[in-house]
Amino acid sequence: MGCSWRKTLSFFLVFVPIYLHGASSQEAAPVGPRKPFFERLRRLEEQFRRFQEVTWTHLQNIASNYNVSYNVDVRFRSLAEESQAVAQAVNRSQASVQGELAQLKAWVRKLQRRGRKVDTRLRALDLTLGERSQQRARERKAHKAQRDALQDSLARLEGLVHSQGARLAALEGRLPVAHPGTAALGPALVPTPTQPEELGPTSLKLQRDRQELRAASEHRGPPQDSSAPLQGRREPPASGSHRVLSGTAPKDPRQQAWSPQVPGEICGVGPTLVFPNASTRNVVFLSPGFVTALRALSFCSWVRTASGRLGTLLSYATEDNDNKLVLHGRDSLLPGSIHFVIGDPAFRELPLQLLLDGQWHHICVIWTSTQGRYWLHVDRRLVATGSRFREGYEIPPGGSLVLGQEQDSVGGGFDSSEAFVGSMSGLAIWDRALVPGEVANLAIGKEFPTGAILTLANAALAGGFVQGANCTCLERCP
């Protein structure tokens, strides 16, 4: 801008003198009249004024353009300064970012090293866990095989024990009818222990039991009538009877003093329940019922009935199944037969025709989920047995347990055709399978097995005509 202004000023200073010199030369010439000269001079003056105005306008434009260019230069300088500041800030930020990136790279390298260490540890842990899982799987297989073998051995042992118990019961039935003159036959029943090392544990136990039976037969005195019912030998409680269930089954056998009773009597068995008719109001609840799941069960009781059928002895119902555990008979069944139900619809039909003679009989129904084995004992004798009945099953807790009626719903839905008519006494339930020796001792009043979870002490009468009594001997009960 400064150069163009200087060029314009130089041109103006050169052009004006030349123009004035030409005008003066024309004025000095004598040619022509005087008047045209002044006119030319006026025109020239006007042209000069116009030129001056144009020049002034041009100079003003140049000045304004110079100011604009100056402002633009200032702006450019400010922009350059700002750009430099921005560049410096960018450089500083780039430097800080580079430093942070270097730190991040260092952290990443550290994390990678730690990750490799963790991966190594995880692989080692995975290998260790895999080996342990394989070892545990092998141990589980071995334990399962041992458990299966133990269950098989236990099942065989239970079968052997019950068979030996049946033989012992048969021997016990023969001993009371022997005459005094035949007492010498007692030793013949016991094998001579010439070679004890050849006898197994079961044979030794059988030998000891037979020796005990022989000693008992020597102190038993004169023979009695073999047709009489089984003799109870519990020490009777206080004399008299009443209609309140205040007595309890013996909890500890050591607290009971056993002594012989009159032949043909069953004494000291505890409370007695009498169901006089088939009314659906005749029901007894056992509380609190089963509080834990049962994988084995033993139900034993003295029973007397003369109605021609047994009816329902026991019924256990839950919300999802009203026949979780039932011992019941009805009009449509064969007289004396009873259905043993565990987890409806599975059941077994048990023969109990011996109970229809109007006399007291002792029954024990035993079941275990191991191979689903079950046994029925009547008056110490094994009358029915089987297996594969609800194998591995558990009777759930929390249901309603009643005597004398069959439940079609929890605590109700009774039917008179399935009601029990008769008497029960000495009822008890165990959460294990009693062995034949315990069943025999219970039937003859020798010893009450330990661990009973329910007895008639847990009974609660629910109205109706059921009578509760504590009889000195069963034959004296109503």
- Identify the CATH architecture of the largest domain: Sandwich
Poorly predicted residue ranges: 177-206, 213-244, 246-261
Ends apart, CA distance between termini: 144 Å
Number of helical regions: 5
What is the percent of helical residues?
40-55%
Q: According to CATH, what is the class of the largest domain?
A: Mainly Beta
Helix and strand run = HHHHEEEEEEEEEEEEHEEE
Structural class, by secondary structure, is: alpha+beta
Round the mean pLDDT to the nearest integer and report it. Answer: 76
Percent of residues in beta strands: 15-25%
Spatial shape: rod-shaped
Subcellular location: Secreted
InterPro entries: ConA-like_dom_sf, Neuronal_Pentraxin_Related, Pentraxin-related
Glycosylation sites: 67, 91
Main location: secreted
Q: Would you give an account of this structure?
A:
By secondary structure, the chain is α+β, with helices and mostly antiparallel strands. It has 2 domains: 2-91; 232-476, Jelly Rolls (Sandwich), CATH 2.60.120. It contains 5 helices and 15 strands. Strand 6 (337-342) and strand 7 form a beta hairpin. Helix 1 (2-28) runs antiparallel to helix 2 and helix 2 crosses helix 4 (201-218). The longest helix has 141 residues, at 34-174. The termini are far apart.
Task: List the topology elements.
Layout: H1 2-28, H2 34-174, H3 185-189, H4 201-218, E1 271-275, E2 284-286, E3 296-304, E4 314-317, E5 325-328, E6 337-342, E7 347-351, E8 361-368, E9 373-378, E10 381-386, E11 400-403, E12 422-430, H5 436-443, E13 452-455, E14 459-461, E15 467-470
Antiparallel strand pairs: 1-12, 1-15, 2-11, 2-14, 3-8, 3-12, 4-5, 4-11, 5-6, 6-7, 8-9, 9-10, 12-13
Helix pairs in contact: 1-2, 2-4
Subcellular location: Secreted
Cofactor: Ca(2+)
GO cellular component, one term: extracellular region
